[in-house]
Structures are given as C-alpha cells and as structure tokens.
Amino acid sequence: MINRLLNFLLNRISCDQGSDVEITGNVRFSKIRLKGKGHKLEIVGGVCRSLDVDISGTNNHVKILLPRDIRNLRITVKDDNNLVVIGDNCGIVNSRIVCCGNGKSIRISADAMIADSCEIWNCDTHSILSKSTGKRINPAGNIDIGKHVWLGRGVSVYKGVSIGDECIVGACSMLFKGEYASNSVYVGSPARQVRKDVSWCIERL
Fold first, then answer.
1. C-alpha–C-alpha distance, residues 170 and 167, integer Å
2. If pLDDT is split at 50, 70 and 90, which confidence band does 64 have?
3. What is the rounded distance in angstroms from the CA atom of residue 133 to the CA atom of residue 204?
4. Is the pTM of this model over 0.90?
5. Contacts for 87 with CB less than 8 Å, ≥ 6 apart
6. Is 134 helix (H, G, I), strand (E, B) or coil?
7. What is the distance between the alpha carbons of residues 196 and 32, in angstroms, rounded to a whole number?
8. Does residue 143 contact residue 104 with C-beta atoms inside 8 Å?
C-alpha cells in the first residue's frame, strides 16, 4: 500500500477515464500519460527510473515485467489496439520505443540488454501514398526481439524485424525488415551477420 502511494506521489501520472495504470514495481521520477479509452499500463515489480510513457488512441496496452533496471526510457504508443511488452529482467537505458498502427506489437523478450540511445520503431510515423491508387504503401509492422538479446549503443530496429534468441547487435547498427538468426553477431547499416554460434553474458569473465 505504501509503495503504491509513493508511486503516485513521486511520478506525474495523467490517465483519462476508461483507462488504467497498475504499478506494483518501484517506479520513480516518471511521466505517464494515457489519453483516450481502453488503455492499460502495467509495471509489474522491478525498478524503473525516469520513464516517459505517452499512450493515445484507443485500447493500447503496455506491459513491463520485473525490469532489472530501466532508466530514461521513452515509450510512445499511438492509434488503436497496439501492444508493447518488455519481458522479465531486461535492462534498458536512455532509449526510445515507438509503436503505431492498428493491432501491431513490439515484444522484447526476457533478459534483454538494450544500451544507450537505441531506437525501436514499428512504423514510419507519416504515410507514403501510391499516386495511382491513393493507398498507403508503408504500413506499420510488428517487432519481435528474442530472449537474452544484446543491442549495443545507438542500434536502430525498424518494423518487420524478428531477432532470434541470444543475438548481439553491434553499436550503431540498423536492422530493417527480416529475420535475424539466433546466436549470431550482426553489425553495420544495414546489419549483416559476421559471427555464428555465439552467446554472451553480462559478466566480464
């Protein structure tokens, strides 16, 4: 009860009627805005500092599970029926997640480590239209980041990307639509596979 009270006293939380914020973790010095109906933000356990969460549209859901250490993370969700999930024991510092579209998702699986200045975008924000049909030709897509993935500083991940478990992505690399094999190292822009059959651990052995 005390922790729940502290969460609301030590954070700036604005939530429209018909939406819900549930925080059971240790969240401090954060800005949280839910604009519209049917949204849900869940932060379950763990430690978060200086989050900036901005959700608009309708029926969007953000779920952060038992974070190891999340600091200065900006999450923006727009449009309708979208989902952002950050799995157990993730560490994320000074990065940004943007999820737009309708019925799209960004999923970061357990034990990921996301370094400073990473960008994860499932959309292009603005529309590109066909001159002949008038239809949009750059729709949003899903992003899936597997278990125990390490994104180096300044990595950019864009719509349609699926990263396999235990991947390592080198600093300032850019990942575009496609599948990236598990237990591999990727570097460059666009990122290319440079090593196979690897894993990693957070300790300096």
1. 10
2. very high
3. 55
4. yes
5. 65, 107, 108, 109, 110, 111, 112, 147
6. coil
7. 40
8. no
